[in-house]
Design brief:
Conserved hypothetical protein from pyrococcus furiosus pfu- 392566-001, ParB domain; 10-stranded mixed β-sheet; single chain; alpha/beta; binds S-adenosylmethionine; 453 residues; 3 domains; 29% helix; Rossmann fold
């Protein structure tokens, strides 16, 4: 809770042998946590982390309900009828006491109370308009809602987002259009596809054999332009898909070790991430810079990609939970610095440390797609016409489109065949050029429309 912003009579005690945080009026209802028992049939898997956050933010404001057990034949004494998750959250936080309101019923009534208590909340019809009014005024912290929940609610309730005015906002780029990934991808791991001057492989960016196949006759390329994955496809309890993990670190170490030998210069787009249920921010980019330095691929310089973002939630209480990390990403340049004149007068963004480029609004095809304008600028800055560019995590093929448009030879890799399908279709839609499979010359159209047995 932020000091001085709210008023409430709370009592928080944290000393040897005693720990709790309750509203003052509940003090005389405190009971030792160790003497209470969870209902053995509690079927509701609540979010204990969220309740912990709420206990910390608001303290315990309502007692849990416990059955004395005088009439019980099966469950026994001190079984929790209502508030099983609050009890678990308090236990996890090391509380010794919790406020209790007592009942004395038989097992039959106890079971029914368990059911009605959970279902009455679930069946309630919520007026989301009022919820939105509240979180817009007060923020989401301690409400159990995430920013994504609010976004979805806004969509359902037809409350369009207001966007930050951006003096450089550009018209929508047709190159950013892309189809959605198929449920049943037609490309397969290990395949190489040719899209005129662009090569795409469905492969693993950390495997030297895959890298060699992608590059074909080339031993090296002029520049690497990429945005590596954040969550490595795994979602752990209490985290979301953007959460950094040990696997992330292993993947970063592995791909940098392989690709720094192939590309003397690399532009890597990375955002800091929020971690854990309390949305703490972690300097992911900083860690990446350090690991590149240790790998002998030092940082040359950093730019900020400033996105154009919704400005809802300017409430007074918003600061503690707002995920500012979503407003910008880093564009780090690694490897050997070189000074070359390539850009014209019109490319006035070249000296700027902050590039304002709207993120792609519609990204059903790839959740982490970057706008074509981003690789476009680096391709222009770092390569000559006819030069070569690699993107080891090419996703929906954005970097390859920029390369094709600017007459550079692009090499793209992605582990996910669904995204490879998107890349091929996107290239076809945008250029009218039919991609084909290297091993047998089959066209993308044939493979795409093939009916499987
Ligand atoms: C942040 S996205 C790249 C998005 C891309 N810049 C775009 O505009 O569409 C990262 C991509 O890395 C891919 N990926 C994850 N692990 C990989 C690996 N070991 N090798 C190759 N690609 C991988 C994911 O499938 C995902 O498409």
């Amino acid at each position: 809770m932020e000091e001085g912003t709210r008023r409430a009579d709370l009592v928080a005690v944290d000393e040897p042998g005693r720990k709790f945080k309750v509203h003052a009026r509940l003090l005389d209802q405190l009971h030792p946590v160790g003497e209470l028992n969870q209902h053995p049939r509690n079927y509701n898997n609540g979010d204990v982390d969220f309740i912990r956050e709420s206990l910390d933010e608001h303290a315990q404001y309502t007692p849990i309900v416990v059955n004395e057990g005088g009439y019980s034949e099966r469950y026994g004494e001190n079984v929790i009828a209502k508030g099983n998750h609050t009890y678990l959250a308090a236990l996890e936080d090391g509380w010794t006491h919790i406020a209790v309101s007592w009942i004395n019923v038989d097992d039959d009534a106890l079971d029914r109370i368990l059911v009605v208590d959970n279902y009455s909340a679930r069946r309630a019809r919520i007026d989301e308009g009022i919820v939105l009014d509240i979180v817009e005024e007060r923020g989401t912290h301690g409400t159990g809602l995430t920013d994504d929940d609010v976004l979805e609610m806004r969509e359902r309730n037809d409350r369009p987002l207001a966007f930050v005015e951006d003096e450089e906002e550009e018209a929508e780029d047709p190159a950013d259009e892309a189809p959605s990934p198929p449920e049943d991808p037609k490309t397969k791991l290990g395949e190489v596809w040719i899209m005129e001057d662009q090569r795409l492989m469905i492969g693993d960016a950390t495997k030297v054999a895959h890298v060699q196949r992608l590059l074909g006759a080339e031993k090296s390329v002029d520049v690497l332009i990429t945005s590596p994955p954040y969550g490595v496809g795994k979602v752990y309890e209490g985290q979301d898909e953007t959460t950094r993990s040990n696997e992330w670190r292993l993947l970063m170490d592995a791909w940098v070790a392989v690709w720094k030998k192939v590309a003397p210069v690399g532009m890597v787009n990375i955002a800091d991430r929020k971690v854990g249920a309390d949305h703490r921010e972690e300097h992911t980019y900083g860690e990446f810079v350090e690991l590149c330095k240790a790998a002998g691929w030092p940082l040359i310089g950093t730019r900020i990609w400033g996105k154009v973002l919704p400005v809802w939630f300017a409430g007074m209480y918003y600061t503690s939970s707002y995920r500012a990390v979503d407003e910008w990403e880093y564009l780090g340049l690694f490897g050997k610095a070189k000074f070359v004149k390539r850009l014209g007068e019109e490319d006035d963004w070249r000296f700027r440390g902050i590039w304002r480029i709207p993120s792609v609004n519609k990204n059903d095809d790839h959740p982490a797609k970057f706008p074509v304008e981003l690789p476009r600028r680096y391709v222009k800055m770092l390569t000559d016409e006819g030069g070569s560019v690699v993107d080891p995590f090419v996703g929906s093929g954005t970097t390859l489109l920029a390369c094709h448009e600017l007459g550079r030879r692009g090499f793209g890799m992605d582990l996910d065949p669904g995204y490879a399908d998107v890349t091929l279709q996107r290239f076809l839609d945008f250029t009218g050029i039919m991609p084909y499979r290297e091993e047998d010359g089959a066209s993308w159209e044939e493979v795409r429309d093939e009916v499987r047995e």
